[in-house]
Amino acid sequence: MKVLQINSVCGIRSTGKICTDLAAVLKAQGHDSLVLYGRENAPEKFASISKKITTDTEVKLHALSARLFDKAGFASNGATKRFIKEIERYNPDIIHLHNLHGYYINAEMLFDYLKSQSRPVVWTLHDCWAFTGHCSHFSYARCDRWKSGCHDCPQKLQYPKSFFDNSRVNYERKKKCFSGVKNLTVVTPSSWLADLVRESFLSEYPVSVIPNGIDLASFKPTHTDVRKKYGIGDGKIILGVASVWSERKGLSDFIKLSELISDEYKIVLVGVNDSLKKELPKNIIAISATDSREELAAIYTEAYVFYNPTYEDNYPTVNLEAQACGTPVITYRTGGSMESVPKENVVAQGDLSAVINMLGQEIKIKEQDFSQKCMVERYVRLIFEMCSRRYEEQMK
Question: H-helix or E-strand containing 198?
């Protein structure tokens, strides 16, 4: 069996790692697998299973088109022709799509090609971009225009940022080009996102929920002297981790919480840039982002609780990482974040009194297999099922 995957990146960040994890398992089982991608460079160890198609210049031109004309996902025509040519050369049994936004491919051209083929297609949605006229998330803006037709986008200055509102046209173009693909199955990491898909113009397709997985060999109880390294000292650590801290990630709630908790607790935030460090209250310990999984696992392990006050999320892997390291998680009733923790650990958005009340109780950890192995096995099973159905149809 030959499986071809398409994503913005390969081997880096969550979506790129899902691609390479799946490719590695397929190769180990004796199958062929190739990842086509458009941005940055995959780590050298993935050179044999990946190929970069879009050039850096093409990405910049696509981003400019998105910024000026709100055409994210509708540029990179030349690169898309090369993607299609590579698909034809590789001749896969099934195509697995991931993020089609990211300024590297023309989704409309790609779907016109997919409709002309009989190959089964899996499309993993890691956010909501596929069924909106502009944004990748809309919960924080409390916008529901995607249900009937986007217009006058309140988030045009959010990713993919644009000075011009083309959301009405984008919505109709996506609705037309993403509809009518034979033998396509949508995959989402959370039931929350699956329910949104069923309310959108993608409702014609079957939806499977496959939660994200993490590397349990890296994220496990890990003991190093991180308290001494970062001057944390004694006290129960209330931990927060983000790649970029913003209001959507609950930064203000951490600041408010720092004014309400007793000296028994210490707030530690990981992923803080130098500019933000100067603005945070002195009783919040700020740590820069770390590329070391061992160090991050040690910080998770040392924490008393992981607090994730996200206002907009799909299925955050930070929740999984913390629990894998033996640290319970408190989160908001937000998107798929609440699906990754025990239901009693979920509080209303902004309810800091409920958070403080939970700190004095026994906080549970969800009993679930968070492993990449479990995630990949479910993907492989779905891919086999879809290829088998196609084979049976061809034999009739």
Answer: helix 191-199
Give the pLDDT confidence of 346-358 residue by residue, as tens digits.
999 999 999 999 9
First to last CA, the chain: 20
Could you tell me the CA-to-CA distances from 149 to 159, 173, 184, 266 in Å, in that order? Answer: 19, 11, 23, 46
What count of Cα atoms within 13 Å lies in the side-chain half-sphere of residue 275? Answer: 3
Within 8 A by CB and 6+ apart from 279, the residues are none
Q: How far apart are CA 311 and CA 335, in angstroms?
A: 8
- Integer Cα distance of 167 and 100 in angstroms: 17
Nearest one of 377, 282, 149, 7 to 269, comparing CA atoms = 282
Pairing of the two strands 32-37 and 50-52: parallel
For residue 396, what pLDDT is reported? Answer: 67
pTM summary value: 0.95
Could you say which DSSP state residue 277 is in?
H
Contacts of residue 152, defined as CB under 8 A and 6 or more positions apart, other chains included, come to 145, 165, 167
pLDDT tens, residue by residue, 65-116: 999 999 999 999 999 999 999 999 999 999 999 999 999 999 999 999 999 9
279: burial class by Cβ within 10 Å (0-12, 13-18, 19+)? exposed
- Return the SS3 of 364: coil
Q: Are strands 284-287 and 346-347 parallel, antiparallel or unpaired?
A: unpaired
Q: Name the helix (H) or strand (E) containing 26.
A: helix 13-28
